[in-house]
What we know:
Blueprint: H1 10-23, H2 33-53, H3 80-98, H4 109-127, H5 134-140, H6 143-162, H7 167-191
Helix pairs in contact: 2-4, 2-7, 3-4, 3-6, 3-7
GO molecular function: cytokine activity; cytokine receptor binding
GO cellular component, one term: extracellular space
Signal peptide: 1-29
Amino acid sequence: MPGPSAPPPPAIYSALLALLLLLTPPANAFSCSPLRLHDSTFTWDSLQLLRDMAPSPTQPCPQQHAPCSFPDTLLDTNDTQQAAHTALHLLQHLFDTLSSPSTPAHWLHTARHDLLNQLQHHIHHLERCFPADATRLHRRGPRNLHLSINKYFGCIQHFLQNHTYSPCAWDHVRLEAHACFQRIHRLTRTMR
């Protein structure tokens, strides 16, 4: 029976510790790898579902323009974490708006349900990209810019209310949602 082996030299412990530190990402590193698997078709699929869900109204709509302007400065970022927060904020607002019980009767329920499921799934993946204390992290972000997203979607809600949730008002919301999906696509390209 061989005797007890000699303990490894201290240099091995130092090398293992250094390797472990190199391979472990910093606590504040932003990792959003689960998101990248879904980004390639998310925007296209969402636009297709939106098109399927919300056919044009049966009667022609008068030209209605909501006085809502999107804060395009949010799209001009190279910061992957800010882009992810902005995309998450947009997705959450889109989900809230499109899940409204006052959507028009001519919208297809199955396609709407599929779109809402896809939005929720993508929201879940984005939320997983942030640490458990994401609310604290979110508050440190560009607060004024995210307040302007809240203002943008608040304007859309007021537009719907002022037009008594008419099919034509919802058609305008559908166009705004289409533009939001294009913005989300631009933001997810920043996150790659």
